[in-house]
Specification:
Helix 7 crosses helix 8 and helix 9 packs across helix 10 (269-277). The chain is built from 13 helices and twelve strands. It has helices at 3-9, 36-45, 48-57, 86-100, 111-121, 135-143, 212-225, 227-239, 248-257, 269-277, 311-321, 324-334, 368-377; strands at residues 12-13, 26-27, 77-82, 103-108, 129-132, 170-181, 205-207, 243-244, 262-266, 284-286, 297-304, 337-338. It has two domains: 77-173 and 298-350, 3-Layer(aba) Sandwich (D-Maltodextrin-Binding Protein, domain 2), CATH 3.40.190; 176-295, D-Maltodextrin-Binding Protein, domain 2. Strands 3, 4, 5, 6, 7, 8, 9, 10, 11 and 12 form a ten-stranded mixed beta sheet that branches. The two termini are 19 Å apart. The protein is of the alpha/beta class.
Length: 381
């Protein structure tokens, strides 16, 4: 069973319909983590003044230039389902509205919930675009044949490795998996995820099996190394007394408190926890040896629904979000990576090209059901 089938079978009423009331519906599964820390910090950063800043960043550039190939009628509204939080993405979308003169109807929610909603709606979906927080949800919609191919030249600034091979979606920001650690508490830093099963790390490593980013990592591990390898590694981690947490931020907080020495998280959580606490924390980010699956880079991304009749406007929004100025602002505000080659890395982190991330087909991360079954089998869920 793939991710798309799993989402539909496990759908539940949606609890987040903010800003778009034109869709009724039930939705679905899964906890793709949106910690309160992230919400509070991003909400603080993106005030009305923040919106003005975005406008200044892009100067007087005009992104809207629509062809008449869709319709002789002027496009006045576009509907987008957004798995990125309102606090994060709304200022950028508002700026595009001003530049283009087009109103955006935005439905906010969990990426997996919105993906399942699109699958349920099928050819009747009112959405023109789907903006997801992770590649797995994009893969689910793509696998169902509900995305249109994005024209060559759209999103051209983005590194091709973060664009689906069939051009059904384009990456917007990168999130690197790292081991966060407490300097001085670990004698020898690990070179591989396999090192974490050794006696030297017994009881010192934190993981979050119920978290979507950890599950995406395990999915990649299964795809790259095989299910037997992944099962053996998970069992070895459990036998080595890996400490279980609900989310990434809790792992970072535990490292700062000295409860554990190291944990598997996304790279931006050290910054996020520090900002939320209002002080420096005793936590640093580390990367495994180049090519190790522990260095997985997942992405947020966007695709155009095959049923949309507003493709030119949708393409213009994608060009806006993938422009150098907006990509730089993403990095500044959230410490996520820009996906433009050669772009500046988040503060105190290596650039994306030097991380040594493994070559992973991000579309394959949609098969989360198998991963969750495996985590349940070994007793981690």
């Amino acid at each position: 069973m793939n991710y798309a089938t799993f989402l539909l079978r496990n759908s539940k009423p949606s609890v987040s319909l903010a800003s778009y009331s034109g869709v009724s519906g039930s939705s679905l599964m899964a906890d793709l983590e949106r910690s309160n820390l992230r919400r509070q910090e991003l909400k603080k950063n993106f005030t009305v003044a923040g919106i003005a800043l975005v406008a200044l960043i892009i100067g007087g550039a005009t992104f809207a230039s629509f062809s008449s190939d869709q319709s002789d009628e002027k496009i006045t509204e576009v509907t987008i389902y957004s798995g990125r939080s309102e606090e994060f993405i709304a200022p950028f979308l508002s700026n595009w509205e001003r530049e283009s003169g087009i109103k955006l109807n935005v439905r906010y929610g969990d990426s997996a919930e919105l993906a399942a909603q699109i699958l349920e709606e099928g050819q009747n979906s009112p959405a023109d675009l789907f903006l997801s927080q992770d590649a797995g949800s994009l893969g689910a919609v793509s696998a169902a044949g509900l995305f249109a191919k994005i024209a060559d030249g759209i999103g051209s600034e983005i590194d091709s490795k973060y664009i689906a091979g069939d051009r059904n979606w384009i990456g917007l920001t990168g999130r690197a998996r790292v081991f966060a650690y407490r300097p001085g508490a670990v004698d020898v830093l690990p070179k591989s995820i396999s090192d974490l099963t050794k006696e030297a790390y017994k009881g010192k490593v934190g993981i979050a099996p119920s978290n979507a980013s950890f599950q995406a990592f395990v999915t990649a591990l299964i795809n790259e190394k095989g299910e037997k390898f992944a099962e053996d590694w998970l069992k070895a981690m459990e036998s080595n007394d890996a400490q279980i947490y609900l989310k990434n931020s809790a792992i970072v907080e535990a490292i700062d408190k000295g409860e554990i020495s190291l944990g598997l998280v996304n790279h931006y959580y050290t910054w996020e926890v520090s900002e939320a606490l209002g002080r420096d924390i005793q936590v640093a980010n580390g990367f495994f040896a180049p090519g190790d699956i522990g260095n997985l880079v997942n992405v947020s991304g966007i695709g155009i629904l095959a049923t949309s009749e507003k493709v030119s406007a949708a393409e213009d929004l994608i060009n806006f979000l993938t422009s150098a100025a907006i990509q730089a602002s993403f990095t500044e505000k959230t410490h996520e990576y820009s996906l433009i080659p050669g772009s500046k890395a988040p503060e105190s982190l290596p650039d994306l090209a030097s991380i040594g991330s493994p070559q992973v087909d991000l579309r394959s991360l949609e098969n989360v059901q198998r991963t969750q079954d495996l985590l349940t089998k070994v007793g981690l869920l």
